[in-house]
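task queued by scheduler; priority normal; single chain, no ligands, no partner chains; default sampling; output format set to structure tokens
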Amino acid sequence: MKNNMKSCLAFSIALLLLSVSSAAHAEQGLEKLYTKTGYPFEPLVKRSQLVRILYQRQDETVTCRTEVTQGSIVWQGQEKKARHDDFITEPLRSCLERSEAKRLLKNTYQ
């Protein structure tokens, strides 16, 4: 019985440390990005609840994808590769095709 309690306690502590570590790591990766104004990207951002760009830089290339939350629906875009310079100046345009942005924007009016 003591061994079970010790195992359970050790597991709980390990799980707690893992949770805290994961939460700290997740917060570390968040930052606010700005993009140039213009149709359809600016209205899409304004009319959506949340627009997230998940990205990873590798030298002069950025691998990214976009998640757009509209109501209870979360749309996940295809992974794309963009030049780092393009991503810095226009992150949303670099990671989301214009045609997809227009389609998603249209959905916000329905």
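post-processing summary
- DSSP finds five helices and four strands in the chain.
- The CA atoms of residues 30 and 54 lie 9 Å apart.
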